[in-house]
């Protein structure tokens, strides 16, 4: 049976309540958009497999609740994240200002090698914009992150943002992945040899049986 994926990475989405984390995730994994806002309770996740540099990467994307009261629960997920997507809403100045707080939490609780990107969501809402695009890219630059403006509603740049963070995580873990794929190839080669030996064995058995009679 063909391998369904080569590696599995965990990504975490962080940002204030209502910035559109769930909608972005649903757009990316199910290509749908629901305009209603049902606040995430604690955490939820969805999966998708991407092919990056010929490697099948399965991403498990954790969608966290932005509401303060769930922070104790959501912080428990930081430790196992390999990539983080910080999200603010371009129509909400406060959600942008809070990115500093989300980033300091990641500093404190996530592994040092975690890869991060910054996303300003709701780019379709130009008339209601409160955060100029260059402010977003400046903040991203300060943190050494790449920056995207997305819209879960129109689908603009959604795939690019998720794919890019996956690529960054893959680059960060390239050595481990190469070793893993190397040993997987060795394993498959050995298994194929064993299978060949196995079929030789059954021929021998047939001959032996033939000799016995
Ligand atoms: N115009 C527009 N609205 C959006 C977009 N993305 C999300 N929304 C709306 O914003 C609201 C909140 O979206 P959610 O995805 O539920 O927000 P969230 O960040 O997951 O919120 P919590 O689960 O409470 O943390 C919903 O009413 C969405 O329809 C977008 O790209 N454009």
From TrEMBL:
<dbReference type="InterPro" id="IPR050305">
    <property type="entry name" value="Small_GTPase_Rab"/>
</dbReference>
<dbReference type="InterPro" id="IPR027417">
    <property type="entry name" value="P-loop_NTPase"/>
</dbReference>
<keyword id="KW-1003">Cell membrane</keyword>
<keyword id="KW-0488">Methylation</keyword>
<keyword id="KW-0342">GTP-binding</keyword>
<keyword id="KW-0460">Magnesium</keyword>
<keyword id="KW-0653">Protein transport</keyword>
<dbReference type="GO" id="GO:0046872">
    <property type="term" value="F:metal ion binding"/>
</dbReference>
<keyword id="KW-0813">Transport</keyword>
<keyword id="KW-0547">Nucleotide-binding</keyword>
<dbReference type="InterPro" id="IPR005225">
    <property type="entry name" value="Small_GTP-bd"/>
</dbReference>
<dbReference type="Pfam" id="PF00071">
    <property type="entry name" value="Ras"/>
</dbReference>
<keyword id="KW-0636">Prenylation</keyword>
<comment type="subunit">
    <text>The GTP bound form of RAB15 interacts with REP15. Interacts (GTP-bound form) with MICAL1, MICAL3, MICALCL, EHBP1 and EHBP1L1.</text>
</comment>
<dbReference type="InterPro" id="IPR001806">
    <property type="entry name" value="Small_GTPase"/>
</dbReference>
<comment type="similarity">
    <text>Belongs to the small GTPase superfamily. Rab family.</text>
</comment>
<keyword id="KW-0378">Hydrolase</keyword>
<keyword id="KW-0449">Lipoprotein</keyword>
<dbReference type="GO" id="GO:0005886">
    <property type="term" value="C:plasma membrane"/>
</dbReference>
<protein>
    <recommendedName>
        <fullName>Ras-related protein Rab-15</fullName>
        <ecNumber>3.6.5.2</ecNumber>
    </recommendedName>
</protein>
<dbReference type="GO" id="GO:0003925">
    <property type="term" value="F:G protein activity"/>
</dbReference>
<keyword id="KW-0479">Metal-binding</keyword>
<dbReference type="GO" id="GO:0005525">
    <property type="term" value="F:GTP binding"/>
</dbReference>
<dbReference type="GO" id="GO:0015031">
    <property type="term" value="P:protein transport"/>
</dbReference>
<comment type="function">
    <text>The small GTPases Rab are key regulators of intracellular membrane trafficking, from the formation of transport vesicles to their fusion with membranes. Rabs cycle between an inactive GDP-bound form and an active GTP-bound form that is able to recruit to membranes different sets of downstream effectors directly responsible for vesicle formation, movement, tethering and fusion. RAB15 may act in concert with RAB3A in regulating aspects of synaptic vesicle membrane flow within the nerve terminal.</text>
</comment>
<keyword id="KW-0472">Membrane</keyword>
């Amino acid at each position: 049976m063909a391998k369904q994926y080569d590696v599995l990475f965990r990504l975490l989405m962080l940002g204030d309540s209502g910035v559109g984390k769930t909608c972005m995730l649903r757009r990316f994994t199910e290509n749908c958009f629901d305009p209603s806002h049902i606040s995430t309770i604690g955490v939820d996740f969805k999966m998708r497999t991407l092919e990056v540099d010929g490697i099948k990467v399965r991403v498990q994307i954790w969608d966290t609740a932005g509401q303060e009261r769930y922070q104790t629960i959501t912080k428990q997920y930081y430790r196992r994240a390999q990539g983080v997507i910080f999200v603010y809403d371009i129509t909400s100045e406060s959600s942008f200002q809070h990115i500093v707080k989300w980033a300091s939490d990641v500093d404190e609780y996530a592994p040092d090698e975690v890869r991060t990107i910054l996303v300003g969501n709701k780019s379709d809402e130009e008339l209601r914009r409160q955060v100029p695009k260059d402010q977003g890219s400046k903040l991203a630059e300060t943190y050494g992150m790449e920056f995207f403006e997305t819209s879960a509603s129109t689908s603009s740049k959604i795939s690019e943002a998720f794919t890019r963070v996956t690529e960054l995580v893959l680059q960060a873990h390239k050595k481990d992945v190469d070793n893993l794929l190397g040993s997987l190839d060795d394993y498959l080669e050995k298994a194929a040899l064993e299978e060949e030996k196995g079929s030789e064995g059954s021929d021998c058995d047939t001959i032996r049986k033939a000799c016995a009679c």
